[in-house]
Specification:
Oligomer: single chain
Structural class: mainly alpha
Strand order of the largest sheet: 1-2
Largest sheet: 2 strands, parallel
Shape: flat
Number of strands: 2
Length: 246
């Protein structure tokens, strides 16, 4: 859908500007993802099947993909097996049949001093907690299995661990495995690590143009925003060629 929207912008003789925070999203947009039939989720096992057993099965049907995955990466192991069971084709083979987007992108990245970035991450997590994230996770755990993939993402999995530990303590009288403060600290730590991985991925892009952001404490946010927009426009104009369209 994003590609169709971009093409529509081109047809009106405009420049398409894509703003994305995820390297995976940009890779899918520019390089393409392999496609699967619409009904691409089939049950292959239940939660009682050990991850080691699943990984062994994957090494037998798709050793190339298995070699790229950690033996404990249950979610991706199951996904790779599902793909094979559904299509009869190894995921490693499907990934070679991507359809790249015919464009010449100009990449612009925003960079911030690491200490300032981490401070903003910590404040964001505190705000999420204040806005009721814990209550949201409690409600989700009461409806869905804690093993649900969506509950294994940063911000959810740490609070799920806290809630399950609290439940075990109330039932058995044992020690709580993780406190709420520890869970919040883990969310902050894991988010910082995720941000670092994203930054590393973007830095691997050849020819990316970096804009260093000033300390947000020293300048008005509106002024900083206008400065960023002005620099982006300048970079686009400077690097736009007759074949550049994104």
């Amino acid at each position: 859908m994003a590609r169709n929207k971009i093409k529509d912008i081109w047809e009106r003789d405009k420049i398409a500007i894509v703003v994305a925070g995820s390297g995976l999203y940009l890779r899918a947009l520019i390089e393409g993802f392999f496609s699967l039939p619409a009904d691409n989720r089939i049950p292959i096992t239940d939660n009682r099947t050990p991850t080691g057993t699943l990984y062994k099965k994957l090494t037998e049907i798709d050793p190339a993909t298995a070699n790229k995955l950690h033996p404990n990466d249950r979610m991706r192991i199951i996904r790779a097996i599902e793909v094979y069971e559904l299509t009869g084709i190894q995921m490693s083979d499907l990934k070679t049949n991507r359809e790249p987007f015919d464009c010449s992108p100009i990449y612009i990245g925003l960079n911030m001093h690491r200490d300032a970035l981490y401070e903003r991450i910590d404040k964001r997590v505190d705000k999420m907690i204040d806005n009721g994230l814990l209550d949201e996770v409690k409600k989700l755990v009461s409806i869905y299995s804690p093993e649900l993939n969506a509950l294994q993402t940063i911000g959810y999995k740490e609070l799920v661990s806290y809630l399950l530990g609290a439940e075990r303590k109330s039932c058995s009288g044992g020690d709580n495995e993780i406190t709420l403060d520890q869970a919040i600290s883990l969310i902050k730590r894991n988010t910082r690590r995720y941000a670092k991985r994203q930054l590393t991925w973007f830095k691997s892009i050849q020819g990316i143009h970096w804009i260093e952001l000033p300390d947000p404490q020293t300048k008005c946010r509106a002024v900083v925003t206008l400065q960023i927009v002005d620099k982006c426009i300048s970079l686009i104009c400077e690097n736009l060629s007759p074949i550049s369209n994104l």
